[in-house]
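User: Hi! I'm working on a homework problem where we have to compare a predicted structure to a textbook description. Could you give me the structure for the chain below?
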Amino acid sequence: MAIKFVYPYMQSLAQGDELKNSIRSICKHVKFDFDIVLLGDSPKWYNGLHIPTDQVRGMRFAKCFDITNKLLHLFESDIVEDEFIYMYDDIYMISDVSMDDFRKIVAMEKYEPGRKVKGASANWQALFDNTFGELSLPLMYNYETHLPRLLKKSWLRLIVKSYNLYKKPMLFNTLYFNEFYDKPDVVLTELNEIKAGVYKVMTTDQIEKLCTGKKFLNHSENTYNDKMVRFLNDRFKEKSKFEV
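Assistant: Happy to help. Predicted structure tokens:
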């Protein structure tokens, strides 16, 4: 059975063709049976599986509650089986990947009390603090890596219900992996052989060099510029079967 890559998607937040290139990267580099599901909005060019949801906007932590709303729709849908891969439209496969690459449990860092996340907004820092305050375990890890995540709907439903994410804004990835796994297989701040993260402005050549030997690429909103667009368009020229 083909595993589903599930993208939570809000058209109004798109800067360009991030989603299209992300899906093209999956088609180019994923070496097992898969399908694509959009959770939320669906752009006109997309012709794959889709679970529509209403947007949650106009309130503090709206993005966080919007994700919870999307997850609730996911739980009720028969389109996606229990095990699926949670994606983002600004993540790209940049070399061939197998299921083993998605089964690795990857953390950003070990949590240190009072940790202030460099460059984080006040809202994101509040989410970070809320999450670890509620977890309150002897040993905890930050799992906000912005990488694809192999998840189980049944486990994720327990997290949403147990932590009351309908009303309490928190980071569900960090809750999920701290609750269901004792420790990660990889901690990126200790050894990063898989992710190229572009969080400052780079030339196309610099992006290419950073990606050498890595599996996944992620960029921030402010680094999705003409250099990044050129790099992605050169890498992923071939139209995917999910495009009209």
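For your comparison, note the following. The CA atoms of residues 103 and 193 lie 15 Å apart. The two ends are 24 Å apart (CA to CA). Good luck with the assignment!
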